[in-house]
Design a protein that fits this description.
By secondary structure, the chain is α/β, with parallel strands linked by helices. The protein has 11 helices and 8 strands. It is 46% helix and 15% strand. 41% of the residues are buried. The structure holds ligand L6N33NVT and fe (ii) ion (2 copies). Catalyzes the ferrous insertion into protoporphyrin IX.
């Protein structure tokens, strides 16, 4: 009888049938990942997993793995661990990215009655496979995965999907899966950015003369091969400017966090900060809409190092606008996405 195996059986199971958990819907939020501790060893483990992903670095393995294991994993972890230590949340002993991702899941859970909400990291812990396994065991037969990247990139969004589908390969009884699309032009997202920006700027004792719109960069080659990331960033920037009444001159687009020797998307945020200081801008803001949670790239690279770059080049006042983090507008955005993408699953 079909109803006895689909988990929704209204009638009692036969006496010899193994117990079934009640059928549930799950939503899994996934962000990039982070080390477990701000130490070189923990950073090495995390970077090893991260930088071994062919979505992140697509060079032939025979070329890349000797560089990764012979050079990068010997040199980079110590410096990166020092940077993580500057931003580590000592109260809960975790990185800001993990802290805010959990807060986002808790905020969403409070808005979705009867839905299991969980969170995972693409690299590091808790892993996508471990959370999917737990959700499945608790009876989630339908799971929506929301990659926490507003702009699609194969390096991030597609890499989350790889991890999800790899994880269910090991399951005999798989859940039904959906992955949420990128939300770079979603009105609730643009509105959330505008609301957080207005609140933050109103609390400063200066008004910025320019606001750099800075996104994480990518190798230019990935864009040339068809990754739509740059287009998504440009559209988010355009919609945000329109919402804020900013001109392109007031709020230029730039790309941060360059890694390796290849040419990356330009202009680089650091160069843009120096250029603006050189043009006499004394008060500068930076917004990073590609990150929905503050992390090493926003708190260390921009708020600490970017601020130093600006003041060394003659700037006087600098502010990094916080990410959406645990703002109520972020919860509203996630709720909108979750409800829309589970349509047909929920009554
Ligand atoms: C080739 C290398 C990298 C690509 C491509 C890349 C794309 C990419 N990354 C993010 C978001 C984040 N990246 C973060 C950290 C980080 N990124 C890289 C390299 C690439 N990223 C490295 C080596 C690191 C680690 C830090 C360091 O060693 O400098 C983070 C922060 C994680 C945290 O714990 O705080 C985020 C978030 C996006 C959105 C993206 C492509 C669009
Ligand atoms: Fe990155
Ligand atoms: Fe960085």
């Amino acid at each position: 009888m079909m109803t006895e195996t689909d988990g929704r059986a209204p009638s009692p199971l036969p006496a010899d049938h193994p117990p079934l958990a009640p059928s549930k819907i799950g939503v899994l939020l996934v962000n990039l990942g982070t080390p477990d501790e701000p130490t070189p060893g923990a950073v090495r483990r995390y970077l090893s997993e991260f930088l071994s992903d062919e979505r992140i670095v697509d060079l032939p393995r025979a070329l890349w793995l000797p560089i990764l294991h012979g050079v990068i994993l010997n040199v980079r972890p110590a410096a990166t661990a020092r940077n993580y230590a500057k931003i580590w949340r000592s109260e809960s002993n975790e990185s800001p990215l993990r802290y805010y991702t959990r807060a986002q899941a808790e905020g969403l859970a409070a808005r979705l009655n009867g839905v299991t909400v969980d969170w995972a990291m693409r690299y590091g812990n808790p892993s996508v496979a471990s959370r999917l396994e737990t959700m499945k065991e608790s009876g989630c037969e339908r799971i929506l995965v929301i990659p926490l990247y507003p702009q699609y990139s194969a390096t991030t969004t597609a890499s989350v999907a790889d991890a999800v589908f790899d994880a269910v390969k090991a399951m005999r009884w798989q859940p039904a899966l959906r992955t949420a699309p990128a939300f770079h032009d979603e009105p609730h997202y643009i509105e959330a950015l505008a609301a957080v920006t207005r609140r933050h700027l109103a609390a400063q004792d200066f008004a910025p003369e320019r606001v750099v719109i800075s996104f994480h960069g990518l190798p230019q080659r990935y864009f040339d091969l068809g990754d739509p990331y740059h287009c998504h960033c440009a559209k988010t920037a355009r919609l945000l400017r329109a919402r804020m009444g900013w001109t392109e001159d007031f709020a230029p687009l730039a790309f941060q966090s360059k890694f390796g020797r290849e040419k990356w998307l330009e202009p680089a945020t650091e160069d843009t900060i120096k250029r603006l200081a050189g043009e006499g801008v004394k008060k500068l803001g930076v917004i990073m809409p590609g990150f929905v949670a503050d992390c090493i790239e926003t708190l260390e690279e921009i708020d600490i190092a970017g601020r130093e770059t600006f003041t060394a080049a003659g700037g006087e006042a600098f502010t990094a606008i916080p990410c959406l983090n645990d703002a109520p507008e972020m919860t509203m955005l996630l709720e909108t996405i979750a409800r829309r993408e589970t349509a047909g699953w929920t009554a």
